[in-house]
Amino acid sequence: MAEVKTLIFDLDDTLYVSKDVYALGLKLAFSKSESLGMGLSFTEFNELYKRARKEVKEMGVRGGASHSRLLYFKRMTEIRFSYTNPAISLALDDAYNQAYEGIDFSESVSCLKKLKAKYQLVILTNHICRTQLLKLKALDPDGELFDRLFSSEELGAEKPAKSCFENLLIQIDRRPEECIMIGDSREADIQGAININMPYIWLNPSAKESTENCILSLAELSEIL
User: Fold this and answer.
1) DSSP state string for 209-225
2) Which residues are catalytic?
3) Per the confidence metrics, is the pTM higher than 0.85?
4) Rounded to an integer, what distance in angstroms lies between the CA atom of residue 158 and that of residue 69?
5) From the candidate CATH numbers 3.40.50.300, 1.10.510.10, 3.30.2310.20, 3.40.50.1000, the one assigned to the domain spanning 6-16+104-223
6) For 187-218, what is each residue's pLDDT tens digit?
7) Domain extents for the chain?
8) In terms of C-beta density within 10 A (0-12 exposed, 13-18 middle, 19 or more buried), how is residue 134 classed?
9) Residue 199, burial from CB neighbour count under 10 angstroms (0-12, 13-18, 19+)
């Protein structure tokens, strides 16, 4: 059996819980929209955001770009004003991104520090690079924990595509059996690892109990690895 050298972590909902952060981001963007005179209530703003997001995805945008909130905000201005308003699009995106500064990574950092002593740590995420760098800035600004962050935007494919994992392995010079994929998504993280015969650990807080390949919390990692 090959020695495990690298732990590959998903980011969203693995190293932090995204739901509250995304809700805060939308509130910050709405507050900015008020100061810019968009003339919408929060309910109207939220509905416009959902509509714009849906339309962007229906346009056929694929890969990391499909997660770009800047595209959603751009489309919102087009629906609201009947033209692309660059200043408002960028301002809403900047306001939303402020939510990442307050992400609570404390539990993750405690666990990661223990694992870093034994393994190389990298992040593999289905998102655009800029957004994930903003999160990494809050989590590990000086590279004390993670050697690399890989986004689907730069790898040319999203998890669970086999090519996504293959391209990452080329970059870190590892074989699948020398790595462990750790993530919350059965469809993206775990199936992706299975596709390339890579060991995995599924973070599933809803599971009834922990097993060899399934944990309820990230804190368990330092106990089993």
Assistant:
1) S-BTTEESSGGGHHHH-
2) 10, 12
3) yes
4) 17
5) 3.40.50.1000
6) 999 999 999 999 999 999 988 888 889 999 99
7) 6-16+104-223, 19-100
8) middle
9) middle
